[in-house]
Amino acid sequence: MVQIPCQNCGKMYPEEWSWYSCNKCDYRICQSCISKHKGKYGSGFKCSQCTFGQMKRK
């Protein structure tokens, strides 16, 4: 089983995990980080890493 890190908290999860991923830049975070991540462009369901991206559950 392949483990990949959350790009916000760094915790390792299985690749098949239920991720939130930006529909523009593919920034990927775990479920627990959706309410915690923030950056230059936003937080929550707005991507924190790019101007127009929205976080969608994958």
What does this entry show, briefly?
The protein contains no helices and five strands.
Notes on the structure:
The chain is mainly beta and 58 residues long. The protein is 0% helix and 24% strand. The protein is built from no helices and 5 strands. The protein has strands at residues 3-5, 12-14, 20-22, 28-29, 55-57. The chain has a 3-stranded antiparallel sheet with strand order 4-3-5, with no helix packed on it. A two-stranded antiparallel sheet has the order 1-2.
Write the layout of secondary structure elements.
Blueprint: E1 3-5, E2 12-14, E3 20-22, E4 28-29, E5 55-57
Antiparallel strand pairs: 1-2, 3-4, 3-5
Order of helical and strand elements = EEEEE
Shape: globular
| Proportion of strand residues | 15-25%
Average pLDDT over all residues: 95
Task: Please state the structural category.
Answer: mainly beta
Q: Spans with pLDDT under 50 lasting ≥5 residues?
A: none
Number of strands: 5
State the helical fraction.
Answer: under 10%
Number of helices: 0
What can be said about the biggest beta sheet?
3 strands, antiparallel
Order of strands in the sheet with most strands: 4-3-5
| Radius of gyration using CA atoms only | 11 Å
- N-end to C-end Cα span: 18 Å
Defining key terms:
mainly beta, 58 residues, 0% helix, globular
